């Protein structure tokens, strides 16, 4: 593991008594259909501050759809969910107060190819948070250093490895100080060394009380990183504090 593991700063803000038990994210009977296909029928679970939840399930079962719903990128047909006290209800507009509070790292990373790593991170600060250019640029450099990419700040995505592009996407998400971080297939296309690097970064983020949801096919990674586990099957979610629910999935071909 390289030097980035010593760069991430961990801070702990004192919380009022009992507040740590309140969920950052709580889903209640989320439903989503595409035509006649009922992809999500009863998706329910909760996630507390500082905890990491792993969501597993077969390809096409609706995991990425759920990420898009939670982050406000897709509508849903029924149910509701609550993020840090703000409720989102089907059929109603996504609350503007939640924009910029949720960090999302998709499998494709979704970096702008014509912008450098530094510019990709700073852009969200300027456009979403309306932060002045100098402050946004300084914060972007800080976040790239946080994930061990200070030396790559001027490089464009095409000049970065898959693991480096992923870390830029993580830095971009963290720059917004999210109350919740969603990672969609974070180990996809990464070799064993890059997975170890990602594991170290996420562990240190967890120490700083960031609530995270990992959507992954990598069951060993999920079992190692998470302290809460959800299995999505046939539109329903089974949740618990033990990864034993994934045992039947270990026999399937995932990659």
Protein model, in words:
- The chain has two domains: 45-101 and 178-255, Rossmann fold, CATH 3.40.50.300; 113-176, no CATH class.
- It is built from six helices and ten strands, in the order βββαβββαααβαβαββ.
- It has helices at 63-70, 117-127, 133-146, 162-174, 192-207, 219-225, and strands at residues 23-34, 37-48, 52-56, 78-83, 86-89, 102-105, 180-184, 211-215, 228-233, 236-240.
- The chain has a six-stranded mixed beta sheet with strand order 6-7-8-3-9-10, with helices on both faces.
- A hairpin with a 2-residue loop joins strand 9 (228-233) and strand 10 (236-240).
- The protein is globular, with a radius of gyration of 18 Å.
- Mean pLDDT is 86; it is low at 1-20.
How many helices in DSSP terms? 6
How much of the sequence lies in strands comes to 25-35%
- Indicate the overall shape: globular
Structural class: alpha/beta
Q: What is the mean pLDDT?
A: 86
Q: How much helix, percentage-wise, in residues?
A: 25-40%
How are helices and strands ordered from N to C? EEEHEEEHHHEHEHEE
Number of domains: 2
* Total number of beta strands: 10
Spans of at least 5 consecutive residues with low confidence: 1-20
Rg over CA atoms, rounded to whole Å, is: 18 Å
Question: Architecture of the largest domain in CATH?
Answer: 3-Layer(aba) Sandwich
Strand order across the largest sheet: 6-7-8-3-9-10
């Amino acid at each position: 593991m390289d030097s980035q593991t010593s760069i991430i700063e961990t801070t702990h803000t004192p919380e009022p008594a009992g507040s740590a038990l309140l969920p950052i994210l709580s889903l209640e009977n989320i439903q989503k259909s595409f035509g006649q296909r009922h992809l999500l029928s009863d998706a329910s679970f909760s996630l507390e501050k500082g905890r990491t939840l792993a969501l597993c399930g077969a390809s096409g079962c609706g995991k990425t759809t759920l990420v898009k719903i939670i982050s406000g990128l897709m509508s849903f047909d029924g149910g509701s969910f609550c993020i840090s006290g703000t409720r989102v209800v089907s059929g109603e507009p996504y609350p503007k107060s939640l924009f910029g509070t949720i960090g999302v790292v998709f499998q494709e990373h979704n970096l702008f190819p014509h912008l450098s790593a530094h510019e990709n991170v700073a852009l969200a600060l300027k456009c979403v948070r309306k932060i002045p250019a100098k402050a946004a640029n300084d914060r972007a450099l800080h976040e790239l250093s946080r994930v061990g990419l200070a030396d790559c700040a001027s490089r464009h995505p095409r000049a970065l490895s898959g693991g480096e592009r992923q870390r830029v996407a993580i830095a971009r998400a963290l720059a917004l100080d999210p109350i919740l971080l969603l990672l969609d297939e974070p180990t996809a296309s990464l070799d064993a060394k890059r997975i170890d690097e990602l594991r170290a970064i996420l562990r240190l983020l967890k120490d700083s009380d960031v609530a995270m949801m990992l959507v992954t096919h990598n069951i060993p990674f999920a079992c190692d990183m998470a302290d809460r586990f959800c299995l999505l099957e046939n539109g329903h979610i089974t949740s618990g504090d033990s990864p034993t629910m994934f045992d039947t999935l270990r026999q399937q071909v995932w990659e």
